[in-house]
Design goal:
The protein is mainly α and 128 residues long. 73% of the residues lie in helices and 0% in strands. It contains three helices and no strands.
């Protein structure tokens, strides 16, 4: 007489074999994904190491403030009330004081725009 447990054990062992094969295939696929991810990390590290360090934010702020101070000193030095064409104009020619001040305001505006742009660029960069 045959035992009814025999065919159940055979079916159970076949199911276990199928599950093991599926687990092995999944593991192989995950290993391939892991290898590709490691290779991508290596290339990204090489790219990051190849990038320039840039200027630290503190040094950039210091240089911008020095530049502003120099421009303000220049305005004080050459911003006197002299009449154009009397021989006492600066080396720039016969430009009026208002034109020089307007130009300096434009330069200061551009410097402030540059400072804001640098802040925007360095917002998500830990090196800045």
């Amino acid at each position: 007489m045959r035992s009814p447990i025999g065919p159940a054990l055979i079916i159970l062992s076949l199911a276990m074999a199928v599950v093991l094969v599926l687990v092995l295939l999944q593991t192989t696929g995950l290993r391939g994904d892991l290898d590709r991810a490691r290779a991508e990390v290596v290339t990204l590290r090489e790219q990051v190491e190849g990038l320039e360090r840039g200027v630290p934010m503190s040094e950039l702020s210091m240089r911008l403030s020095e530049l502003e101070n120099d421009i303000q000193e220049w305005v004080v030095a050459f911003g006197s009330d002299t009449a154009p064409g009397d021989g006492s104009t600066p080396a720039g020619g016969s430009a009026s004081t208002d034109e020089v001040l307007d130009r300096l305001d434009d330069v200061l505006g551009r410097i402030n725009d540059l400072d804001e742009r640098v802040d925007e660029i360095c917002q998500n960069v830990p090196v800045c």
